[in-house]
Amino acid sequence: MKSWGAIIVGAGIIGLALAIELNKQGLRVLVVEKGEPGREASWAAGGMLVDSPAETRRELQELAKASARMYPEFVHELQDESGLKIDLRSQGTLLLSRAETRQSPGGTQQAHDSPLSLAELEPALQELDLQELDLQAGQGDATRFTAQFLQERCVDPRDLTAAAVAAARHRGIDFSSGDHVLDVEVADGKACGVRTNKTRFAAGVVVNCAGAWAGQIGPHPFPTRPVKGQMLCVVMPEKEMVRHVVRAPEVYLIPRSDGRMLIGATSEEAGFDKRVVPETILKLRQ
User: Fold this and answer.
1) What are phi and psi of 86, to 5 degrees?
2) Residue in 266, 149, 205, 277 with CA at minimum distance from that of residue 25
3) Cα dihedral across residues 73, 76, 80, 82: positive or negative
4) Which three-class secondary structure state does DSSP give residue 63?
5) CA 277 and chain centroid, separation
6) Is-above-0.90 flag for pTM?
7) 3-87+156-216 CATH fold
8) What are the sequence ranges of the domains in the chain?
């Protein structure tokens, strides 16, 4: 039976990046993917490279900061090896948060002022629009927003995964698509390969990068679950109408360099149901 130095289960961006790195270390690598490489969560992501301490669990903050620092070089290498362009933007993020207003003894409202001028940073985002966004979210008229500028990047995940697949193939990494891994095979206490719905593959190292499906792979299943997110892609009236990523409590906006903008996203406990619900998309469009 043919053997590899390492088998990566799952061809999302994590599995692809790991396969490329192991190939650099001299291993012969096989990537086993149940569907089409890069077409699950990596394909559907928004691409915000968040390393804000306020939004990152404490135990992951150091990792998030290190990842953010490494991303430009990572993208550069993938572009160089694949010959494909990746839309990596460095304009930053506007993080909007609620500042509760309250009635003063005289009956007038008091609110925290924005520490940054939204009109200067994003002329398309007028204060009235932000208040309207809050009203649509059902928060009433007793809430306003403050804004914080974050020096973050965002990337188009579809560019990224396409380039990663092309770079991996360019390096001679093997792929087996349409193979659903059922078990990691173990001999003498060590992983020695995988069993799929079609065949078996042997390797000295096996890494499970199957995402939401990872916990279904034997011999030791563990609890994992998918969380469904729906988003809307629109074409802005003009490129760079919105330049920054904008994150508010109920919605985010992610501009792309070609003039598209993503509006998202829901967070739904819907199992592996990937269907788009028209009513949900219409709500995002409002």
Assistant:
1) -115, 125
2) 205
3) positive
4) helix
5) 21
6) no
7) FAD/NAD(P)-binding domain (3.50.50)
8) 3-87+156-216, 93-150+228-285
CA distances from 157 to 89, 180, 203 (A): 12, 23, 29
Written as six digits, the tokens of 184 are: 């990691």
- Write out the two tokens for 241: 């109408």
8 contacts 15 by C-beta, under 8 angstroms: yes
Q: SS3 letters for the chain?
A: CCEEEEEEECCCHHHHHHHHHHHHCCCCEEEEECCCCCCCHHHHCCCEECCCHHHCCHHHHHHHHHHHHHHHHHHHHHHHHHCCCCCEECCCEEEEEEEECEECCCCCEECCCCCCCHHHHCCCCCHHHHHHHHHHCCCCCCEEEEEEEECCEEECHHHHHHHHHHHHHHCCCEEEECCCEEEEEEECCEEEEEEECCCEEEEEEEEECCHHHHHHCECCCCCCCCCECCCEEEECCCCCCCCCEEECCCCEEEECCCCEEEEECCCECCCCCCCCCHHHHHHHHC
Q: Which two tokens stand for residue 68?
A: 């953010």
Mean pLDDT per segment of 10 residues, for the chain of length 286 residues?
Answer: 94 98 98 96 95 92 96 98 98 83 36 53 63 48 71 97 98 97 96 96 97 95 93 93 91 96 93 91 82
